[in-house]
Amino acid sequence: MDRGTLWGLVAGRAARSPDVTALIQAGATAADDRRLTFGALRTRAERVAAGLYGLGVRPGSRVVWQLPTRIETVLLSLALARLGAVQSPLVPAYRDHETAHVLRRTAADLFVVPGTWRGFDHAAMARRLAARLPRPPAVLTAYRTLPDGDPAVLPPPPAEGEAVRWIYWTSGSTADPKGVLHCDRALLTAGTDLGRALRLTPSDVGSMAFPYAHVAGPDYTVMLLRHGIPAVLFEHFALPAALGAYRRHGVTVAGGSTAFYALFLAEQRKQPGRRLLPALRLLAGGGAPKPPDLYDDVVRELGCALTHGYALTEAPMVTMGDPRDSHEHLATRDGRPPAGMEIRIADGGEIRLRGPAVCRGYLGEPAPFDADGFLPTGDLGHLTPSGHLVVTGRLKDIIIRKGENISAQEIEELLHRHPDIAEAAVIGLPDAARGERVCAVVEQPPGAAELTLDAITAHLLAQGLARHKLPERLEVLAALPRGATLGKVRKPELRERFGGGAARV
Q1: DSSP letters for 330-366
Q2: How confident is the model over 346-362, as pLDDT tens digits?
Q3: Are 143 and 153 in contact (CB under 8 A)?
Q4: Total domains in the fold of the chain
Q5: 481 is in which domain, residue-wise?
């Protein structure tokens, strides 16, 4: 029995499958790859826990860690789970502003960093920020080596999974990130439900190409522990460099978000007629809208299934498409919720959530739940008679022009069908006469013809879009600004950048 704790799940899997591979660290070549079994995962994590205990980490200690996707990162996180510490993962892309905010809000006892990673000195930043705090945390560099000790010194592992032991951070661009409070049981519920939805089998091989510090990290780890299957870890995901490891290890399940689907598809189009990843059976993810045309292109050209779901930091698994669903359901909907996840569509179309995978609230803020205990998400959608969720956008993505509500996502999906548009983001900009005007910000594929506002207007009209929804401004960027985790477009940044100025024609 795992008793609802992550460490209980680790111990249980290690007892059942000690010699089965759990993690594979992708190297540049096969000689550079590293492996760890489930048995070694438990043994080494417990020794790391003992090493941390020797450094003063105790049950309830607050530890912020900012580490890349490596075996050592998983070991450190599991060691903290063994101790019952409160851990706050931080994506490595965060710099002084966001990191200082996290250290201050958590009142961290320990801050773990990778040293200099990808040209940035995290250790220097850690020391600089710690010196500014009234109670500075200890700073530990942990990249290739981790603290080590004798597990005999350890107290018993946590006995229950209801206490808040995780603080995850929502990404913000115009405001400080919020600390999302989770317990072990919530993360176990989410990861278990995800594995069921994807219909994993003992022969599957997963992959983690996203930052392990994202809430998807424990989500995916729980899935591996439940099913006893391995995953390939990519410290830095980039294509085509990562393709060799995908092929070497026969990855069958991959993904992360819409941006990942598009990257794989772009690589496949460089060699049409030859499968990019022969073993791949399923791409899966969430975190951003999935245009139906992208679904069709991926399934047809990559030769695999694609299931997309809806999740957020506050609830890591809300819905997920079933690989056995119909084409219509997979292309146009965002899956069904598992047992225990309640979805309520409030007045105005807002999606609200209640269930064991939902967070406990936000660090230092009033409880965000409504009178019935549902969490308002700020997302808009509806449920179909079959129980599938259709996410239609965000409350702040509804553009109100002359009193008419316009869905940004509807226009984005139509723009995505244009052959000279690789990615599109539609935003509302202030307008004194109309309230808001519609602005399309697009990214073009290499070699595409130059776009004009007239050209996209003609395209949208040909797709049947109503005239009052047409963009009145076009901006073309070399690359849309994206979040540091799953590559979601940062619309607040676009609104701030294009809040004034003339339209492109």
Answers
A1: HHH---BPPTT-EEEE-TTSEEEEESTTS--EETTS-
A2: 998 999 999 999 999 99
A3: no
A4: 2
A5: 402-497
